[in-house]
Amino acid sequence: MSDHAADRPDAPAEDPLQLALHICFALQNTSRAFNAVYRNVLRETGLTYPQYLVMLALWEHGELTVKGLGALLRLDSGTLSPLLKRLEAAGLITRSRSRTDERSVVIALTGSGEGLREPARRIPAEIQAAAGLDTADFHTLDRILRQLTDSLDSAANAAD
Fold it and tell me: Are 73 and 53 within 8 A, CB to CB?
């Protein structure tokens, strides 16, 4: 039986300012826990979690502009530029000016970057196992989080 006051009809209402009642705090803690697991799982690839996200985007979409990659990953250029410089220095990507728009920089995988794709295929299963969720729960959680993100984006845009 739960100890939450909301589960007892005669119990006083909970204080809405309790830290434990804020889903944003739970999501932040979950994010930190995911990052710790990713740090271990990614160790042998030599990638950090943000670098892994860049590689995932490139494996899925092929060449992308810096602007397109930033939009896809929800990262600003100040965060993305150092990431891309490190990936380029590691020989995993190239950055070059677009032939059709000199203002755009195109990011592409190198052979080494493409070569990481196969070893990386094990990572999602390792993360799912670490999360302790079966496939159905994992998909349900993903759907709920995407819905939450869409709703929050709409609310933020309406406030602008």
Answer: yes
Query: pLDDT tier at 10 (50, 70, 90 boundaries)?
Result: low
CA–CA distances in Å: residue 10 to residues 2, 17, 20, 66: 14, 21, 21, 56
Rounded to 5 degrees, φ, ψ at 72 are -65, -45
Distance CA 26, CA 12 (A): 23
Output the pTM of the full model.
Answer: 0.85
What is the residue extent of each domain of the chain?
39-127
Residue 156 burial by Cβ neighbours in a 10 Å radius (0-12, 13-18, 19+): exposed
CATH of 39-127, one of 2.40.100.10, 1.10.10.10, 3.40.50.360, 3.40.50.300: 1.10.10.10
**Residue-averaged pLDDT of the chain:** 92
- At residue 156 the predicted structure's pLDDT band, cuts being 50, 70 and 90, is very high
**Length of the chain in terms of residues written:** 160
Q: pLDDT tens for residues 29-80?
A: 999 999 999 999 999 999 999 999 999 999 999 999 999 999 999 999 899 9
